[in-house]
Amino acid sequence: MKRQYLMWSAAAVAVAVVAVSYAARTDGTADPAPAVSRANALQTRTVALQEKLHARPGDAGTWAELGATYTELARAGADPSYYVKAQGALEESLKIKPSDNGEAMLGQGALANARHDFAAARDWGLKAQAVRPDSAEVQGVLVDAYTELGDDAAATASLQRMLDLRPGVASFTRASYHFETHGRIDEAKDALDRALAAASTSDERVFCHYYLGELAFNRGDLDEAARQYDQGLALNPQDVTSLQGKAKVAGARGKFDEALSGYQQVVNRVPVPHYLLEYAELLDQAGRKPEAAAQYTVLAEQKKLLAAQGANDDLTLTTVAADHGDPVEALALAEAEWGRRQSVLAADAMAWALHVNGRDAEALEFSDKAAVLGWRNATFSFHRGMILAALGRGPEAHASLTEALTMNPYFSPLHAPIARTKLAELESAR
User: Fold this and answer.
1) Last residue of a domain, one of 114, 135, 168
2) pLDDT tens-digit readout, 67-97
3) How many CB atoms lie within 10 A of CB 245?
4) CB of 152 within 8 A of CB of 16?
5) What is the DSSP letter of 303?
6) In 201-272, where does DSSP find H-type helix?
């Protein structure tokens, strides 16, 4: 949902000392929701835990498990109200057992990551590590937090430890994301293939197929992307992430009716900001402006709802503001996010927000920060190309925009056409 330089050995998996990124195997936007069947299973588990606590209200371990389940439910159903319930349950666990309570500390770290409070997640992860030094789950919390905070060395060390402890789906997928963000796509795919081979449940296999599809889509291979999403849907026809992938491929192929129908199913079930934005931009591209405007209104309401529950998705909201007419708000959101984390995604958001405010010299500095890991990201290249064009650096702008479209001609229904138009302008000015 959130990849590293890996060294595979016969007996175990090791990671060289470079950076890691995963954040629930995401691309830095919104955490992808698990399948709806997963949400139903979590609801069942919640009821069982609540019944157990009625009989034993002083059971710190059950309170911690309930808190962790609420956090998963928030993500599975895009319902941030569960975050407050999670916090309450975890705090109750720590009240009952204030020390040596690794489960509750781990739960607090996972909750903080889910809310995008990565500094708090790091701090809770370190507390949990002191109590549970041999927990792969604790290392996963630290990998995600350090990655989003921009601390590559610490993220790598935590991933290495996680892989040493448990070379499975969670660690392989984190390793895969690291490889992708460092421009090592073949190794990213290899890591996901290993994750798929290690998967023991249908949900895990769906998860791996989705991200194999994302890797293919991000390099412009629509046939392979569709094949991977289809394999996920064969395992679970109701999986939201696979449905989103299929809708995205349909949109890239110009099949707007199919794409919009798919996205409508997705946002009706899991209205996270990232999906809402993709749906709105596709509606724009299809010429359905009033419906697109309605989705942007829903996005604004989602922002309020997330904030009320102590969570945020300001990277997505920065994009909305920057691309749809509110440069001042875009910069305010980007600056707030940069204050919380200094990942390459946050750097790119700062670069674009500064650009739409006409501050291109500063924007280029942040574009440099976004490029530091070597991620072959078409959106990053597009943003850089537009910034360079605004600075009058035509040949460099041409190279960056060409790179974006070569990497993935379908990277954005909004920006890919803009990139082509700007390239034509630059070529005519030669």
Assistant:
1) 168
2) 999 999 988 766 788 999 999 999 999 999 9
3) 28
4) no
5) H
6) 202-218, 222-235, 240-252, 256-269
**Measured between alpha carbons, how far is 247 from 378 in angstroms, rounded to an integer?**
20
Q: Is 298 within the bounds of a domain?
A: no
pLDDT digits (tens, 9 = 90+) for 378-398: 999 999 999 999 999 999 999
- Comparing C-alpha atoms, which of 256, 337, 247, 273 is closest to residue 33? 273
Helix axes 118-131, 136-149, angle to 10 degrees: 150
Please choose, from the candidates 102, 40, 120, 103, the residue with its C-alpha nearest in 3D space to the C-alpha of residue 68.
103
* Cβ 378 vs Cβ 405: under 8 Å: yes
Pair of tokens at residue 268: 């009706």
Q: Which residues contact 159 (CB under 8 A, 6 or more apart)?
A: 4, 15, 20, 139, 143, 171, 174, 175, 178
Helices then strands, each counted (H, E), the chain? 22, 2
Amino acid at residue number 320 = V
**Domain enclosing residue 42, as ranges:** 1-168
Only one residue has tokens 């890991």, namely 373
What CATH number has the domain bearing residue 89? Answer: 1.25.40.10
Residues in CB range of 207: below 8 A, 6 or more apart: 1, 25, 34, 169, 173, 199, 241
pLDDT at 38: 73
Q: Which helix (H) or strand (E) holds 30?
A: none
